[in-house]
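Task: fold both queries, return tokens.
Query 1:
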Amino acid sequence: MKFARPDGLASSGEKMVTVDVYNLQREKVGAVDLRDEVFNVPIKRHVLHQVVVSQLAAKRAGSASTKTRSQVKASGRKLWRQKGTGRARVGSAASPTRRGGGVAFGPSPRQYTMKVPKKVRKAALRMALTDKVQNEKLIVIDDFNFSEIKTKAFVETMKRFDTRTALIVTEELDVNLDRSSRNVPWVKVMRREGINVYDLLRYDNVFVEQPSLKKIEEVLA
């Protein structure tokens, strides 16, 4: 990975990131320049945290539900007479203090969604990509097409890049790649449109097809 200005002049403020392009045999087949406004931005941890929390909150089902005393189906008949039995007065069989009664202050269905402005989400994506580039965890692949559906061949390909966990971003859905990686728990394959901050930070290495890289720059620049 190299940092240089396109005009060849040294500068402490403006830099252009150049990363190598590999094939599936881990052979260098070229290089590509990355746009500074996407892959070389200041990283702000609180922005990344805000977006990740929002993503995780949106995944919560929020379906926990209990019935209050007004929702419990119970007889309206008085259980026993008011006086003379030696027991406490009781009003309803649906009371929260009785077995089978309603629940006091129990959970009800709700939405945990936290709204984050679109500009903040885009900024967080740029920061997450910058973090991968700075730590040399962004790997550009010229083409991720597999000739056959074979998990063993896919795992061997990943081992060539010495990766423990990997996020693979492709431009189009490749059936062979999708099915070959389906049973590999430490790999996730997604199309470019689904790229998000949580997955970028969750996986050690990010593999991006070269055509997808240009599209990502167009969207985030």
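Query 1 returned. Query 2:
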Amino acid sequence: MSAESNELYSLLIPLADERLIVPRACVAEVVRFTKPQREEGAQDWMMGTVTWNGRALPVVSFEGALGKDKPAATGRTRIVVFYASTGRLKTGFFGVLTQGFPQLVRVNEDVLQLHTTEGWAEGAPVHCRVKMINEFPLIPDLERLEAMLARESVQA
């Protein structure tokens, strides 16, 4: 088997103080930020919805979902549109705020190692933190994030 077949195209997604790493295939698109319309009584991490491709897209702050402060939107803020994979979201997609453009990287077992499975609240949408050369990105639990969204959003 060639080394290339053991590599995975991934995206490093910049947050305020962290980075997420996800397979490229999880992401449908990266769009410019527009202010979400907030739903009455929504959790603080639930930013609201934006119109994307003619549909209401629920948008979350990943930092907020971790119990941290939500970052203020800047000129670099974007929305990363993820495919919903569990069938819980009728929209089929959801968005996560990012503080810049995701960076495409190729990863394999030589550059990616488990760092820790602890350091965030129980129930947080995180699988683990990995070490990737000199970075320590989080691997999000997108299924858990979808479940949180499904409970929270009337658009979901």
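Both queries returned. Flag for query 2: The mean pLDDT is 90.
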